[in-house]
């Protein structure tokens, strides 16, 4: 049986290069991989762009999202029968009408709001970055400092709209099996919030104790095994 295509969707303050190590391992294990560009402009328009990409992929798909990318895949997969599993890596899993900005405040422990550096844009929009001075400590605490510094330099901003916009329409986790890899020492999305979202989605859960928000970078072997578990269990 042909392996499903693994489609990875990065979150805010990141780009697809963070997936390089897990992509390399997935390819070595015989899985086709697609890294979907995430515009980070608004959760519903971002989901629509990823949805359009998914429509061009033949055969079964395992859709993977990190952080804000989790909110994007929850909208992008709706209505696509080829998507067999949703894998959330330290990710937001909103329901209809919820915004990631309000979700993150439901449980204590997030440092994201105090870490943001705004950049006003022409036309009134605002781009948000993680202040590079705190990126290592708060976003990537278990990643080597020199490597984390490079991720801080290369980060892509999300708009304030992306965090404040409620998810529209049916969210795919209501109908597609979901798998949540929870980072146990996350300072961006509190582990308690990750666990709440996973529980209401009736997800298969694995907690990586001590892992930062960049669990897929610091624990690539664990992450790949979890994605491949989702692929095996939803095959057919």
UniProtKB/TrEMBL annotation:
<dbReference type="Pfam" id="PF12697">
    <property type="entry name" value="Abhydrolase_6"/>
</dbReference>
<dbReference type="GO" id="GO:0016787">
    <property type="term" value="F:hydrolase activity"/>
</dbReference>
<dbReference type="InterPro" id="IPR029058">
    <property type="entry name" value="AB_hydrolase_fold"/>
</dbReference>
<keyword id="KW-0378">Hydrolase</keyword>
<dbReference type="InterPro" id="IPR052897">
    <property type="entry name" value="Sec-Metab_Biosynth_Hydrolase"/>
</dbReference>
<feature type="domain" description="AB hydrolase-1">
    <location>
        <begin position="6"/>
        <end position="224"/>
    </location>
</feature>
<protein>
    <submittedName>
        <fullName>Alpha/beta hydrolase</fullName>
    </submittedName>
</protein>
<dbReference type="InterPro" id="IPR000073">
    <property type="entry name" value="AB_hydrolase_1"/>
</dbReference>
């Amino acid at each position: 049986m042909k392996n499903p295509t693994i489609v990875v969707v990065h979150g805010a303050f990141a780009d697809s290069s963070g997936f390089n190590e897990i992509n390399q391992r997935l390819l070595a294990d015989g899985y086709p991989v697609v890294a979907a560009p995430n515009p980070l402009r608004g959760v519903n328009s971002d989901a629509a762009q990823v949805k359009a990409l998914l429509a061009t992929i033949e055969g079964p798909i395992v859709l993977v999202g990190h952080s804000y990318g989790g909110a994007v895949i929850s909208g992008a997969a709706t209505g696509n029968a080829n998507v067999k599993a949703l894998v959330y890596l330290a990710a937001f899993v909103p329901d209809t009408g919820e915004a990631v900005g309000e979700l993150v405040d439901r449980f204590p422990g997030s440092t994201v709001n105090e870490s943001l550096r705004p950049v006003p844009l022409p036309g009134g929009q605002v781009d948000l970055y993680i202040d590079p001075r705190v990126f290592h400590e708060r976003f990537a605490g278990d990643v080597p400092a020199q490597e984390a510094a490079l991720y801080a330099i290369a980060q892509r901003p999300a708009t304030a709209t992306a965090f404040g916009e409620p998810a529209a329409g049916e969210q795919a986790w209501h109908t597609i099996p979901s798998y949540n890899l929870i980072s146990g020492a996350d300072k961006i999305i509190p582990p308690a919030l990750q666990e709440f979202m996973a529980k209401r989605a009736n997800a298969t859960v694995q907690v990586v104790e001590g892992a930062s928000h960049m669990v897929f970078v610091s624990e690539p072997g664990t992450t790949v095994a979890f994605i491949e578990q989702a692929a095996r269990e939803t095959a057919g």
